[in-house]
Description:
Blueprint: E1 2-4, E2 9-12, H1 16-20, H2 27-32, E3 37-42, E4 45-52, E5 55-65, H3 66-74, H4 85-96, E6 102-111, E7 114-122, E8 127-128, H5 129-136, H6 142-161, E9 174-178, E10 184-188, H7 201-218, H8 223-234, H9 241-260, H10 277-284
Antiparallel strand pairs: 1-2, 2-6, 3-4, 4-5, 5-7, 6-7, 8-9, 9-10
Helix pairs in contact: 6-8, 7-9
Amino acid sequence: MLMRLQDGILVDEAYIELLSKCGLTSFDCFMRFIGGKLVKRRGRKEVWHFTVDGTSFYLKRRWASLWDFASAILRGGTLGFYGFKELHNIMLLNSLGIPTMKPVAAGSRWRRGFNEAFLLTEAVDAFRLDEFMRDEFAPLAQGSKRKLLLQLAALVSKLHSFGLFHQDLFLHHIAVRVHSDGEYELILLDLDRLIRPRIWRRAMIKDLAKLLLSSYHHAPLSDADRLRFYFAYARRCRLEPSDVALIRRVWKKALWVESRDGQIKDTLRRMPRQPPSLVEARFKGR
């Protein structure tokens, strides 16, 4: 349960003593903290990872100018991480029963023309889904792969059924926890771009395209695996003309992202320029 402290900070009272051990006692302390490891820095946005008494955390923070907000709108979107946006998204998914991160502290304020914001979450004790697929699927039985793909399809379908779209749905933004009984639990990460648009089709295509793209670059999946995912996601047993049209649009969007994403466009493995013949064959063979 988050409670409001001085300086406009929201914090889970169960963590106050633990955070005080590393000096995280005020808004300025969170924004200036440089302990642990710098995981990512892009412009004025940073992500830090650190551990206190055996508990690991991720600290995300950003200094966003008015121009950052304006340029995001001019590009046809909205700024990702700012204010309490991601905290609200986490609380929303928790209320809907969709597994995600545990918020520990958050803060937002305007200062000298900048929106300063931070979010502290407890690190998820799980594997990144892209790494798990790459490292574990090769020796695993085909049944285990299918089981995980069906759970992934169910998770994405559930999210979309609420009119919510992640918008950065690469496999590395999903974690998988393997329980002692062999069951998988999927956990959504990085919710700063989560939206609930009035016109949802474009957002749906973007989510599916980024999943498709990352499945080519990070997962040993076959065309049949990808089609099996789509059947489970769309709750279909065969492809209709509308499904083929959607798959083509998703494919086109994935190619567009591939050509522009700095972490992907220079990799050696590329997506085929056209959807697999399996999709066409399923449609023509109806």
